[in-house]
From TrEMBL:
<dbReference type="Pfam" id="PF08206">
    <property type="entry name" value="OB_RNB"/>
</dbReference>
<keyword id="KW-0378">Hydrolase</keyword>
<comment type="function">
    <text>3'-5' exoribonuclease that releases 5'-nucleoside monophosphates and is involved in maturation of structured RNAs.</text>
</comment>
<dbReference type="InterPro" id="IPR011805">
    <property type="entry name" value="RNase_R"/>
</dbReference>
<keyword id="KW-0694">RNA-binding</keyword>
<feature type="domain" description="S1 motif">
    <location>
        <begin position="641"/>
        <end position="722"/>
    </location>
</feature>
<dbReference type="InterPro" id="IPR011129">
    <property type="entry name" value="CSD"/>
</dbReference>
<dbReference type="InterPro" id="IPR003029">
    <property type="entry name" value="S1_domain"/>
</dbReference>
<protein>
    <recommendedName>
        <fullName>Ribonuclease R</fullName>
        <ecNumber>3.1.13.1</ecNumber>
    </recommendedName>
</protein>
<keyword id="KW-0963">Cytoplasm</keyword>
<comment type="similarity">
    <text>Belongs to the RNR ribonuclease family. RNase R subfamily.</text>
</comment>
<dbReference type="InterPro" id="IPR012340">
    <property type="entry name" value="NA-bd_OB-fold"/>
</dbReference>
<dbReference type="Pfam" id="PF00575">
    <property type="entry name" value="S1"/>
</dbReference>
<keyword id="KW-0269">Exonuclease</keyword>
<dbReference type="InterPro" id="IPR004476">
    <property type="entry name" value="RNase_II/RNase_R"/>
</dbReference>
<dbReference type="InterPro" id="IPR022966">
    <property type="entry name" value="RNase_II/R_CS"/>
</dbReference>
<keyword id="KW-0540">Nuclease</keyword>
């Protein structure tokens, strides 16, 4: 037995990696072979001889330094040390993301050394063997990505633990008794990690806020916001400051602006909107051209730089649209009242006014501050009714007033002409290589308590496209106007798609008989548009729409203009939504500064602000997505006895993901719960294969499922597999 246990020592085992780790953890201390052997808890002669040998090899390779005879130090800078980011998996392992490596470096669990998801770290990468994935070890956590976490508290006699629902958070958080605050056992809490002692299995934390009881509606919504560090309300001092702002319309201010109150103006927004960012004005000119104004709430008139209100708006950077509420960027006194372009009210606006021909050529443009008067407010459904029927009477069933009403002939005519022009603009964009993603949005009908009563799909129609095209025109022309002056500006940029992701997508869509043309970026965009058209209305539509969106690069804000691939624009900015996006506020300020003759602004300063805004946009998007998942799980809780037709939307070694056709809720059928056969995952076919029947369960297959478990806290659905759609029920 003794020999068998010592067998590894006879295999010329190397201690090099462990030596590097010991020296790295004490970078300024020199060690001899005895001290290293003691650290490694080795006392046999063979191991000590191997340590001596490894020390000499590492010194010869210049990875360590022999500071004095027999004593060694880690070399200050080593080519095997890299800085990057940790990407945790749900299996307590991670990947190290670093631009120095084409392929991410694998980090085993025991090499994480207290690093958490998205932390910035220093990693030692082991000598890479040909044909094997590189492995690494975290030497130091340089910067924590986050220190606040949401979880459920389990209180013991003298301490507590908080466990999170985040599958990438591999440890619970230890809470000393005097750091419990007001928390009671089982509460959902927000905790702050204060320390992670070297010998402790878990980080030490402190409860900073009690969010409520698990499963309660407000608790879960506040937990989503807290998880992403997003505020639920405004500080009292910010609300107080906002309430004191003078929001009156004065003759003195009007005199400084272009007065467009007599020009026909109206808004088209969602029926439940409260913040009306934009309005359109329409006038036919004597030369048969059209003067079309895109009027945007003049938020920067009220939001002064350097104030606590502006600081708060910048930190938030965006409004957050959760499934049951909006967390606004600006307090309500501005977002829903002073800045909102409400009907029959005079409002200050920042405008882009264009003279446009019948063929949609822009022959003149003007940018500047204006005052407008909105003659009419439409919901998209009402404008759509006018476009489809050309009727001037809005019926009761779609009217936002609750009863039928008549629209003036002037507004009907303007709406129809704007729709006609928008279609020309849209066709031109598509011909130029823009990509059309009209992904179905899931919406919920909620009762007074915020409980989901039903699901419906939001689909973009002509009225949506009308507004979209004129907003795109304003955003494009503002960016072009400043961009051609070569002055610092904030662009909304979108890089070309990731080719590896497109190839992976091609492998999936080929199973449905579709393909992508890879010859050049223009051909890619055309074939993607054709793909979107081909899948429209088919069972695989949502799956392929999702894959296509994921294959795209993410749009972001930057002072470095590379154009916008998805829109096929050389210049593009965000000018049209300053109530809900801080970059638009900065665009307004810069545009006015340059209109007044200002020199180019500080590029580094604005690039930093762009990065912050892009980051906050990403967090808001994640929170919005989580809130939809939460509501989907809540909805399915009440339908546990119902059979649902679903489409297989993902296949993994542990099961299949299934998307319900009628409500787009997605859940998992675990492989062990499919009883009709013994299934295994076939990576090449991207399918589960039955051992006895050889039947496949693959992407796009229709199956019937029933809810097995609906976990509100984890926002996860588990389904039971019932049968394939083609099988008849006996």
């Amino acid at each position: 037995m003794g020999k068998r246990l010592r067998k590894p020592a006879k295999k010329e085992m190397s201690f090099s990696d462990k030596i590097i780790k010991i020296l790295s953890n004490s970078a300024n201390k020199a060690f001899n072979y005895k001290q290293i052997a003691e650290k490694l808890e080795l006392d046999d002669t063979q191991s000590r001889n191997q340590i001596i040998k490894d020390l000499k090899i590492l010194a010869a390779e210049k990875k360590i330094i022999e500071s004095e005879p027999g004593k060694y130090l880690i070399k200050a800078v080593s080519q095997d040390y890299y800085e990057g980011t940790i990407d945790m998996t749900s299996r307590k392992t991670a990947y190290f993301i670093c631009e120095d490596f084409e392929e991410d470096v694998f980090i085993p669990t025991n090499n994480l050394n207290r690093a958490l998801d998205k932390d910035k770290v220093s990693v030692y990468v082991y000598n890479r063997r040909k044909g094997r994935r590189a492995e690494g070890e975290v030497i130091k956590v340089l910067e924590r990505h986050k220190t606040d976490f949401v979880g459920v508290i389990d209180i013991q006699k003298n301490f507590a633990f908080v466990s999170t629902a985040n599958p990438k958070m591999y440890t619970d958080i230890f809470i000393p008794k005097d750091n419990l605050g007001e928390a009671e056992n089982g509460d959902v809490v927000l905790v702050h990690i204060e320390d992670w002692p070297k010998r402790a299995d878990s980080p030490f934390g402190k409860v900073i806020k009690v969010l409520g009881k698990p499963g309660e509606h407000d608790t879960e919504i506040h937990a989503i916001l807290a998880e992403y560090g997003l505020p639920a309300e405004f500080p009292i001092e910010v609300e107080t400051y906002a309430q004191k702002i003078d929001t009156s319309i004065s003759e003195a201010e009007i005199a400084k602006r272009r007065d467009m109150r007599d020009t026909l103006t109206f808004t088209i927004d969602p029926k439940d909107a409260k913040d009306f960012d934009d309005a359109l004005s329409f006038k036919k000119l004597e030369n048969e051209n059209y003067e079309i104004g895109i009027h945007i709430a003049d938020v920067s008139h009220y939001l002064e730089e350097g104030t606590i209100l502006d600081d708060e708006a910048y930190q938030r950077a965006t409004s957050v649209y959760l499934v049951d509420r909006v967390v606004p960027m600006l307090p309500e006194v501005l977002s829903n009242f002073a800045c909102s372009l409400r009907p029959q009210e005079e409002k200050y606006t920042f405008s882009a006014v264009f003279e446009i021909t019948e063929k949609c050529q822009v022959v003149n443009q003007w940018f500047g501050r204006t005052v407008i008067y909105s003659d009419q407010r439409f919901a998209y459904e009402e404008a759509q009714y006018i476009i489809e029927t050309k009727d001037d009477t809005i019926p009761e069933d779609i009217s936002i007033t609750g009863s039928s009403y008549q629209v003036s002939e002037e507004i009907v005519s303007a709406t129809l002409k704007l729709d006609e022009l928008a279609k020309i603009f849209r066709k031109k964009r598509m011909n130029d290589g823009a990509i059309s993603f009209d992904k179905v949005e899931v919406k919920f009908n909620l009762d007074a308590e915020g409980e989901p009563e039903g699901v419906y799909f939001k689909i973009s129609k002509d009225a949506n496209h009308l507004i979209e095209e004129f907003m795109l025109l304003a955003n494009k022309k503002v960016a072009e106007y400043i961009g051609k002056q070569k002055k610092t500006f904030i662009y909304r940029i979108h890089d070309e798609p990731n080719e590896d992701k497109l190839i992976a997508m091609q492998n999936v869509i080929a199973k449905f008989g579709y393909k992508i043309d890879f010859r050049n970026p223009g051909d890619i965009s055309k074939s993607l548009n054709q793909l979107m058209a081909d899948v429209n209305g088919k069972k695989e539509q949502n799956l392929i729409d999702t894959l296509a969106i994921r294959s795209m690069s993410k749009a972001k804000y930057s002072t470095d203009n590379i154009g916008h691939y998805g829109l096929a624009f050389d210049y593009y900015s965000h000018f049209t939504s300053p109530i809900r996006r801080y970059p638009d506020v900065m665009v307004h300020r810069l545009l006015q500064f340059y209109l007044d003759g200002g020199k180019s602004a500080d590029e580094d300063l604005y690039e930093t602000k762009c990065l912050h805004c892009s980051t906050m946009e990403g967090l808001a998007t994640n929170a919005e997505r989580d809130s939809i998942k939460y509501m989907q799980v809540k909805y399915m809780q009440d339908h546990q006895d119902q059979e649902f037709l679903g489409v297989i939307s993902g296949v993994t070694e542990w099961g299949i993901y299934v998307e319900i056709v009628e409500n787009k809720c997605e859940g998992m059928v675990r492989i062990r719960d499919i009883k009709e056969d013994y299934y295994t995952f076939d990576e090449k076919q991207y399918a589960l294969v039955g051992a006895t029947s050889n039947k496949l369960l693959q992407l796009g297959d229709e199956i019937y499922v029933k809810v097995k478990n609906a976990d509100l806290v984890k926002k996860q659905l588990d389904f039971n597999f019932l049968r394939r759609a083609e099988e008849t029920v006996n």
